[in-house]
Amino acid sequence: MGENMNKNLRKAVIAGNWKMNKTRGEAAAIISALKPLASGANCDVVICVPFTALETAVEAVKGTAIKVGAQNVHFEANGAYTGEISAAMLKDIGAEYAIIGHSERRQYFGETDETVNLRTKAALNAGLIPITCVGELLSERQAGITEEVVSRQVKLAFAEIDAAQAAKVIVAYEPVWAIGTGETATAEQAQDACKLIRDRLCGLYGKEISDSITIQYGGSMNPKNAAELLAKTDVDGGLIGGASLKAEDFGVIIGAAN
Ligand code: 13P
């Protein structure tokens, strides 16, 4: 009962991760279809688009409550880092959020717990809201080390981040085996992992801060399963891949958070 009250302290955030999808024209089209579906939402709605569509998206959401984010951010302020984008550049273009440490970046682009921490700090210092991702591999779940893996990821992601800054971070729990596979964690598995993350944050920052941090679930969230997942006490939102590429589906998930 008391714990459910705590859910009301937190902002529900439904974020779409478009991954490497959508040209500028396609982005404008989906945003215009999304606008009426997102109006009156009882949660924060964020779309994390490819760098090349950021300017288009920022322009297209003007006058709505939809916010725009990037899918990565480099940790250095500037310099000889060919192909990278800084937090200041993202702020400059009008992005307000940045996904950090997504499992696809950990898997394919050499992202480590240390670089996740560096990127999270860089985003915070620039005034971007980090959506910092954690989650275990299938082999880790099968080996019974989910708690150990997720606890380590949380601890390292938040290293040297003070309580005031930590309170601004959104954590996304994305079990890697549920991403893009159509296999969703059960609502109970999602709740258990999000609660574990909150407990670890409580250990780092105390109850008041940990109760205020938004923790999302991500991994094959869709219009059918969203309501059950989002009803869980410690699941404060969703990070949605495939289903965020269709305005109608994303609209249903936004509605489920209301
Ligand atoms: P899917 O919703 O396509 O499984 O992707 C989840 C995800 O990785 C969001 O960041």
What labels would you give this structure?
binds 1,3-dihydroxyacetonephosphate, 8 strands, 45% helix, single chain, eight-stranded parallel beta barrel, alpha/beta
Topology:
Blueprint: H1 2-7, E1 13-17, H2 24-38, E2 44-48, H3 54-60, E3 67-70, H4 87-93, E4 97-100, H5 103-108, H6 113-126, E5 129-134, H7 138-142, H8 146-157, H9 163-166, E6 170-173, H10 187-205, H11 207-212, E7 215-218, H12 226-230, E8 237-240, H13 247-256
Parallel strand pairs: 1-2, 1-8, 2-3, 3-4, 4-5, 5-6, 6-7, 7-8
1,3-dihydroxyacetonephosphate (13P) binds next to β8.
Notes on the protein architecture:
The protein has 258 residues and is an alpha/beta fold. Helix content is 45%, strand content 14%. The chain has helices at 2-7, 24-38, 54-60, 87-93, 103-108, 113-126, 138-142, 146-157, 163-166, 187-205, 207-212, 226-230, 247-256; strands at 13-17, 44-48, 67-70, 97-100, 129-134, 170-173, 215-218, 237-240. An eight-stranded parallel barrel has the order 1-2-3-4-5-6-7-8, surrounded by five helices. α2 (24-38) links the parallel β1 (13-17) and β2. It starts with a helix and ends with a helix. The structure holds 1,3-dihydroxyacetonephosphate. Residues 17, 102, 174, 179-180, 218-221, 239-243 line the site of 1,3-dihydroxyacetonephosphate.
